[in-house]
Specification:
Blueprint lengths: L10 E5 L3 H12 L3 E5 L3 H9 L15 E6 L12 H8 L3 E3 L1 H12 L5 E5 L4 H14 L3 E6 L15 E6 L2 H5 L8 E4 L7 H4 L2 H13 L3 E5 L3 H10 L3 E5 L15 E4 L2 E4 L4 E4 L9 H16 L4 H9 L9 E6 L2 E5 L6 H10 L3 E6 L1 E2 L14 E7 L3 H8 L5 E5 L1 H14 L6 E4 L3 E2 L7 H13 L3
Parallel strand pairs: 1-2, 1-3, 3-4, 5-7, 5-8, 6-7, 8-9, 9-10, 10-11, 15-20, 16-18, 16-20, 18-19
Antiparallel strand pairs: 11-12, 12-13, 14-15, 17-21
Helix pairs in contact: 5-10, 5-11, 8-9, 14-15
Length: 458
């Protein structure tokens, strides 16, 4: 735990008692603050009481005595409408912050030189966060990894000059962190996402930019327009990362750029830094970008190239993100259940050929129409879930498909189809391009079930 001493002997209101909210309440209490916590879920309130946290309906407290409202990142700050607790705090002139802000203030107080790597982006941030932490740990560093990737930041050990915090940040978390100033700030990419919570793409991008603006060193992927513009505004102490579509574009890159091309990471002058060819957990151009960013971060923190290459080679990947589940003869089985929209599935389709594709679920806007250019990579499609009719209409005449309805029917059908084809390495790929909620509680449950079914094949 990181005790938060910056609010010692003051009252702090807290709304949202999920995992990170409960960790925040405990950290504030450990640092000497009086915490008044609440949640709309009575079970969460009861759990907090069981942990010794004082709870109170924030409608009835004296806001004139409150130093800050700590808001869980899942609670609306601005869109589609501010949560009622936000209105109460604003009416009393009370600042509204999140758990990342508490960490930043504690770091500034007790260990301002402690290395702090913050990673954001629409896609790839969890893989990049885990890869950076893995490389540093393999190189012998004391690493604490958390944030949006799953472990609440205040559950981690406190900042220290000899300890590196590698933290994934969502736009919601950044929005609640006005003093965000990491040692290294990473922006991978920006595509439309969470617009229901931020209003417009411009506002969403502006929130992401805050992470870069306050960083000592900024590392920015420049393969989308909003990110390129952010890099241009940043100016110095910047490393650009580029995955070229057209080699001619490389000539315009400045000397601070890293280029990820054909599974290798190069400096702008052509100097080769690392190679990810043959590393199953880092397949595909999107993972080349993730690897290039990790190389840049590790170099900035003084890790030798030999240790970086060793860390890349031993990276196990993350569950449900192009996870290699098994090989059976020539057939490779890949769990990409985290791909809940077409943009995410595109990354998997570009990484393989001779694909026996399991897809479907609760469709997102646009369906799989953006994936039409990749249909030539697909040997056969196996449809599951509520999106079957719509996806069949898009596949009709372009890709042979089978309506399987359930994952239990799709896995053996895809396995048999892959085994029967003549390709040297056919791939059974679960990359649904859909939310899971029609048949599963979460993408994790869907991916776990795929793994079970693959391992149960005869």
């Amino acid at each position: 735990m990181t005790p938060i001493t910056t609010f010692a002997e003051r009252s702090v209101a807290l709304f949202g008692l999920g995992g990170s909210g409960l960790a925040t309440a405990l950290a504030l209490k450990a640092g000497g603050a009086r915490v008044l916590a609440f949640d709309d879920n009575p079970e969460s309130v009861a759990r907090a009481r069981g942990e010794g946290i004082e709870t109170a309906d924030l409608h009835g407290i004296d806001w004139s005595e409150v130093a800050a409202l700590v808001l869980a990142p899942g609670v609306p700050l601005t869109h589609p409408a501010p949560h009622w607790s936000v209105g109460l705090a604003q009416g009393a002139g009370v600042e509204i912050i999140g758990d990342i802000e508490l960490f930043c203030r504690e770091r500034a107080k007790i260990a301002p030189e402690a290395p702090f790597v913050a990673i954001t982006g629409t896609n790839g941030k969890s893989t990049t966060t885990a890869l950076i932490a893995h490389i540093l740990a393999q190189a012998g560093r004391d690493v604490q990894m958390g944030g949006n990737i799953g472990t609440a930041i205040l559950s981690l050990e406190p900042p220290d000059a000899g300890r590196v915090h590698v933290i994934e940040l969502s736009s919601f978390q950044i929005d609640l962190t006005p003093s965000l100033a990491p040692s290294v700030g990473v922006l991978l990419n920006i595509t439309p996402d969470h617009l229901d919570r931020h209003g417009t793409l411009e506002q969403y991008a502006a929130i992401k930019e805050r992470l870069i603006r306050g960083a000592d060193l900024a590392i920015v992927g420049i393969d989308d327009r909003p990110s390129r513009e952010i890099a241009e505004r940043r100016g110095d102490r910047l490393i650009r990362v580029h995955v070229p579509v057209h080699p001619s574009r490389e000539a315009a890159l400045p000397a601070d750029a890293l280029i990820a091309r054909e599974a290798a990471i190069h400096e702008a002058d052509g100097t080769r830094l690392a190679d990810v060819s043959g590393i199953g957990s880092l397949r595909g151009a999107h993972n080349w970008q993730n690897a290039a960013v990790a190389v840049a971060v590790a170099r900035a923190l003084g890790v030798p190239l030999e240790a970086i290459q060793a860390g890349l080679a031993s990276f196990p990947g993350l569950p449900h993100r192009m996870e290699e589940v098994a090989r059976r003869g020539r057939v490779l089985f890949v769990n990409d259940s985290k791909a809940t929209n077409a943009d995410s599935t595109e990354k998997a389709l570009t990484a393989f050929r001779d694909i026996h594709w399991i897809l479907g679920g609760k469709a997102k806007e646009g369906g799989i129409f953006p994936l039409v250019p990749y249909f030539e990579r697909i040997a056969h499609a196996y449809l599951i879930g509520a999106a079957s009719d719509a996806f069949a209409a898009t596949l009709e005449g372009a890709v042979p498909y089978t309506r399987c309805e359930t994952l239990e029917a799709a896995v053996p059908a895809a396995a048999a189809g892959a085994e029967a084809c003549g390709a040297p390495e056919p791939v059974v790929l679960l990359s649904p391009a859909c939310a899971s909620y029609d048949q599963f509680r979460s993408f994790e449950q869907r991916g776990d079930r795929f793994r079970e079914l693959v391992r149960a094949l005869p």
